[in-house]
Specification:
Length: 503
């Protein structure tokens, strides 16, 4: 009995020891593998030890260019990546850096999702296109489509440029001889091309188009040059709503040949009548409509000054002890920003006025409906955001009427105010609508600074009883800064009213 007892005890001790040793060994192996994993994290193929990542290198049709393919068949986190490599390390390093970052972002996000219990199978697909130019220069356009959860994936387009013979890379600035005048022309041509593109024209956000095509070289970073055209790639969701993928703009070489630096200029013999580059010497571009966008956007500042008298008139001070303020939001609706703004307004039980664009209501009818359901005032801000003082009567009428129609159809509620884009208004514009024309006296400049903290600073400095505050429900920074603005105004004793309720 005693013996048995002792025996049993000693075997328990043995088992406990064995378990402890096994546990220690396992954790030691785990720790070592973790460390090596971290050390090797710059080597992408070691990222997923358990799944097979296949890396393959083949020659391309282009001299000096190889194609690297990396694929993983992981059940939850698969990827297929293809990119070019040359004989020149600066180019190769730039590409590798982009690929590694894209892959790391994808793997990290997916690992987090998995940890949080998501069963969603991700997708990362990077492929590329090679576009050649007669000068021996190549543009490599990498298309990165990824999806890490839910239905909406994203597509990112990035371009890299190389002369495979010399190893020289080139930028958009090199292409245009680093000449600021050429950059201005490029900006104008890009705007023109965007507004002339039937797939984009009706769907673009004019203020965004303006920003993304400002004459700054970096705006045109992603491009490809061929013998026929200059192709510009813009970021997805930036220029237009609901666009299928990133906007791609094509400008014929005939329109830019004279602007290109010498080594990229096409010189074509003067034989064919139809030859586009017959006279590449100098061809001034005529003034183009997109210039209007530029000057009118600049007016926003001035307008807030010039319109002050107008709004003052309608808001004569009545000292009844109640301080009123009208919050107004332009250029929406937006599926994310407008919703967040509605939530914040609801938190303060504040009513506001939303001056919507017809083109965006068409895209986001359910968001417009939510604005109405939340009890806010519906305003008309035209269909496409043009400067109406530069449009003819028919255009003014259709911009206003079609917008009112769609807002009323979608929400079942009447539009009760009109705000002309850029605050630009004249007799012709006024004569085309019975709606009261509403401008503003406090401009938060939210479209310019995009800074949640500056929103409150602008409001603090300029708001008084009866003020109309101008904001835009298309900028995330505005949604983020609104809570502080409402908290401040409430603490100052203001009541939030719809613009047509201002007394
Ligand atoms: Zn606007």
């Amino acid at each position: 009995m005693k013996n048995m007892h002792r025996k049993r005890r000693s075997s328990w001790i043995d088992i406990t020891f064995s378990i402890a040793i096994i546990a220690l060994t396992v954790s030691a192996i785990y720790l070592i593998s973790q460390t090596t994993k971290n050390e090797a994290s710059s080597l992408p193929e070691k990222n997923k030890a358990s799944t097979s990542v296949v890396i393959d290198t083949i020659d391309s049709h282009y001299p000096g260019i190889k194609i690297i393919t990396e694929t993983s068949n992981d059940t939850y986190i698969p990827f297929a990546i293809q990119y070019p490599q040359s004989l020149h390390s600066p180019f190769n390093e730039a590409i590798s850096k982009y690929i590694t970052t894209a892959k790391q972002n994808y793997l990290t996000t997916m690992a987090e999702n998995k940890k949080n219990g998501s069963k969603f199978t991700g997708e990362l697909n990077i492929s590329f296109e090679t576009l050649s130019h007669y000068s021996g220069n190549y543009s490599f356009v990498l298309v990165n489509s990824s999806s890490t959860g839910g239905a909406n994936g994203t597509t990112d387009i990035r371009s890299f440029h190389l002369n495979p013979e010399t190893g020289e890379t080139f930028t958009i600035a090199d292409l245009f001889g680093r000449d600021p005048k050429n950059l201005e022309q490029l900006s104008t041509l890009a705007r023109e091309a965007i507004y002339n593109d039937p797939l984009l024209a009706d769907h673009v956000f004019p203020e965004e188009v303006h920003l993304q095509t400002e004459p700054i070289w970096a705006n045109f970073d992603n491009f490809a040059i061929t013998d026929e055209s200059l192709i510009l790639y813009f970021d997805e969701y930036e220029l237009a709503a609901g666009a299928a993928g990133p906007p791609i703009i094509v400008i014929p070489v005939s329109d830019i040949n004279s602007l290109l630096s010498e080594k990229f200029q096409l010189v074509v013999e003067d034989t064919d009548e139809n030859t586009i580059t017959k006279d590449p010497v100098k061809e001034e571009n005529p003034a183009t409509p997109p210039k209007d966008t530029e000057s009118s956007t600049n007016q926003v500042n001035n307008d807030s000054d010039t319109t002050e008298d107008e709004t003052e008139g309608s808001t004569e001070e009545v000292d009844d002890g109640i301080k009123q303020i009208a919050l107004t939001f332009d250029d929406g609706p937006d599926p994310k920003v407008t919703i967040q703004i509605l939530e914040t307004l609801n938190k303060y039980d504040a009513k506001a006025t939303f001056f919507m664009l017809g083109s965006r209501v068409e895209y986001y009818p359910e968001i417009a409906k939510k604005v109405q359901e939340a009890g806010h005032e519906l305003g008309n801000h035209t269909w496409n955001h043009p400067d109406l003082t530069k449009a003819n009567v028919e255009k003014v009428r259709s911009e206003i009427n079609e917008t009112s129609s769609i807002i009323e159809n979608v929400t079942g509620q009447k539009v009760t105010a009109f705000r002309p884009p850029y605050g630009a208004v004249n007799k012709t514009v006024r004569s085309q609508t019975n709606l009261p024309v509403v401008l503003w006296d406090v401009d938060t400049l939210d479209w310019k600074h995009r800074d949640p903290d500056k929103l409150l600073a602008h409001v603090k400095g300029a708001t008084k009883d009866g003020s109309i505050i101008l904001m835009h429900d298309i900028h995330q920074s505005t949604a983020d800064g609104l809570d502080a603005v409402l908290a401040y105004l409430q603490s100052e004793g203001y009541t939030f009213v719809k613009v047509s309720e201002l007394q």
